């Protein structure tokens, strides 16, 4: 499956923070998306989606991942995520590495 994305405003090298986990959950519910379905559409792991929804310490991701999640949910850029500021504020490491499609 090919996924085309438009750049998240100012996403290059910046970290994005989830505005509210309930907002993400609500958009998922409206579209009848499970964590697995959103993960497949956004190119990340189901565990990462779970962390966004359930772990207050892990609510950040790269601008690219934020853009893919918002695109998968058909919302405007910046609806679900906001700029978090400097990378060191985002926590340790990029926990949002894309999952390669299995053939």
Structure overview:
The chain has 103 residues and is an alpha+beta fold. 36% of the residues lie in helices and 12% in strands. The protein has helices spanning 21-30, 35-42, 46-54, 63-72, and strands spanning 15-18, 60-62, 81-85. The chain has a 3-stranded antiparallel beta sheet, with helices on one face. The protein is globular. The relative contact order is 0.27. Residues 1-8 and 88-103 have low confidence and may be disordered.
The structure class reads: alpha+beta
Total beta strand runs: 3
Our Rg estimate from Cα atoms comes to 12 Å
CATH superfamily descriptor of the domain at 15-85: lambda repressor-like DNA-binding domains
Q: Under CATH, the topology of the domain at 15-85 is which?
A: 434 Repressor (Amino-terminal Domain)
What are the main properties of this structure?
single chain, disordered C terminus, three-stranded antiparallel beta sheet, globular, 434 Repressor (Amino-terminal Domain), disordered N terminus
Describe what is shown at a glance:
The chain has 103 residues and is an alpha+beta fold. The chain has helices spanning 21-30, 35-42, 46-54, 63-72, and strands spanning 15-18, 60-62, 81-85.
Helix-strand blueprint:
Elements: E1 15-18, H1 21-30, H2 35-42, H3 46-54, E2 60-62, H4 63-72, E3 81-85
Antiparallel strand pairs: 1-2, 1-3
